[in-house]
């Protein structure tokens, strides 16, 4: 191999939205820079959950990460603070064109640990053909949603991580953001109300939803003709594009709790592009990151190859919306108001363990106060991990991925 050939290795997640745009941008970047070769590998969502970014950064130069890792990154120094490597005007454009809190989600301790190349939050999805077939309109309120669910036409993700993110959503929508105090996830009054509302809805869907992530929900909606509406799941614009699935999905903002009230406020997801602190070719890696996150690439090459851009101009672009059944224009309001969950070192522990107790409650019922106490105990333990003298082995932390 020629000594002047630069090779970078990247790791991303195994979905058309996660892998294909990275492979396409790497190919084009190599064509523009013939001495550079970039290889992307993909891992399942569970494999992402089982290996920390500190471990991945030992073996890869480029990493596609989730923002809950920001505090961990700041603590361990496993990835580079990109604000020290990228031009100030580029970073200013990224911040000015953030989709909701996407740019801020990778900011921690005064540094930028990743570029928001992908933006997502739970949004609503429908099969317009099935709604028309049943003579039904899109639900506008939570009461409308319950009525639609009574007809067996509703599905959403109820695996542990998505259950926890939806619990956050109900709390936010009732007027209280979770995890704002150091000893309590949410007040008892709001927590009980959120849990009871959530359980009322969850009791009306197929129990198979307790085993489905958002991708599996969308596959069930498009591969069968049994489900007409998903009220909230991390959005995938792929399913709004011709030819991707058996049937086309349309995506929407979510319902309001009451007539004329505010709409549900979901929990921000998305992914960011980071560079390992062990990367031996930092200058090249930085140029590639700048290329991928640029507005031109985000609006064209990145989107055209299945990506879900993180740059606001791509969300507002006429071509992008024309090719995705208006996915981006229709769901942007939900992104702009989405809740930014905590990112302190240790919150991944809470995120990894708190979803299952909520899921068990949704399946079997129980004492809401006891459940909230259990969540508070996990939360306080996670907060202790954020302390500089914590004895927790940071490399052992894992989390469940939200999209």
From TrEMBL:
<dbReference type="InterPro" id="IPR050490">
    <property type="entry name" value="Bact_solute-bd_prot1"/>
</dbReference>
<comment type="similarity">
    <text>Belongs to the bacterial solute-binding protein 1 family.</text>
</comment>
<dbReference type="Pfam" id="PF01547">
    <property type="entry name" value="SBP_bac_1"/>
</dbReference>
<dbReference type="InterPro" id="IPR006059">
    <property type="entry name" value="SBP"/>
</dbReference>
<protein>
    <submittedName>
        <fullName>Extracellular solute-binding protein</fullName>
    </submittedName>
</protein>
